[in-house]
Every structure is written in structure tokens, then in C-alpha cells.
Specification:
The chain is of the alpha/beta class and 138 residues long. It contains 4 helices and 7 strands; from the N terminus they run βαβαββααβββ. 24% of the residues lie in helices and 28% in strands. A 7-stranded mixed beta sheet has the order 1-7-6-2-5-4-3, covered by helices on one side.
Length: 138
């Protein structure tokens, strides 16, 4: 599935469409170069899920946890700073992946061996015209 974002104004509608397309999937691994828009799109997803106080990227805390009145528990991970999978185990990442809540993971290649089999892989690319192309594996 592909989603194209031309401007920031497209984010809310795209986030709603994205969530509707994956209504029974809860683990999402976001790949893309630095500055491609991973955090921006995840924040749009959080807003579409009813989160009003979004903390932004959990670059230093590694994970932000939210409670949505519509979607339940949501974990937003930025694992860029992890050195190895042992550090991921130390923060309890596997328990969060299998908790039944939503998980949005930035830089998933750092923990790809720990991700559940049904993870949706999402690639975000910045195109030459400054639009963003979001592609998924399903």
C-alpha cells in the first residue's frame, strides 16, 4: 500500500486512511533516512488516535507511552541510540511488543530480531519535489 503526502495539511487525512487500512495490525516498524518524516507521521497517527498531548520523538527516553480513549495503550519507540539488542531487552521492549497495545518503532533495524512476525514494515522516503512517499509491505 502506498500513501503520498504533498504537504503537512495532508497528514491528518493520510493518518486516518493509514489506520483504517491496518485496523487489525498493531506493530509498525518505520524505516527511512534521517529527516524523512518518520516522527512527523507517527505524531499525525497519534493525533488521529485521539492523543492530544504528543511528546514528539522519544530520542532520549527511547519510548513514549500514551493512552488513547479509542485505541488503548500506544508505545512510540525511537531506538536509534540503542547499541545492541541487550539494551532493548533492558528497557522491556519485548514485553511492550507483545502487550497487545500499538507500537510505532523508529529505526527498527536495531531491534528487527525482536519484532513480532506480524509487524507492518513502513518505509518513508522524501522525493525530489519534497513530497513524502509512504510504502508498506501489506
Amino acid at each position: 500500500m502506498d500513501f503520498k503526502i504533498h504537504t503537512l495539511k495532508d497528514l491528518p487525512a493520510t493518518a486516518i486512511s493509514f489506520l483504517a487500512h491496518f485496523d487489525n495490525r498493531k506493530i509498525f516498524a518505520f524505516k527511512g533516512e534521517m529527516g524523512a518524516g518518520k516522527t512527523t507521521f507517527i505524531c499525525a497517527l497519534l493525533a488521529a488516535m485521539g492523543i492530544t498531548e504528543i511528546e514528539g520523538s522519544p530520542t532520549y527516553s527511547l519510548v513514549n507511552v500514551y493512552d488513547s480513549p479509542l485505541y488503548g495503550r500506544i508505545h512510540h519507540f525511537d531506538v536509534y541510540r540503542l547499541k545492541n539488542e541487550t539494551e532493548a531487552y533492558d528497557i522491556g521492549i519485548e514485553e511492550m511488543f507483545y502487550s497487545g497495545g500499538y507500537c510505532f518503532v523508529e529505526w527498527p533495524e536495531k531491534v528487527d530480531n525482536l519484532l513480532p512476525e506480524n509487524t507492518v514494515w513502513v518505509n518513508i522516503r522524501s522525493l525530489e519535489d519534497n513530497t513524502r512517499l509512504i510504502t508498506t509491505d501489506k
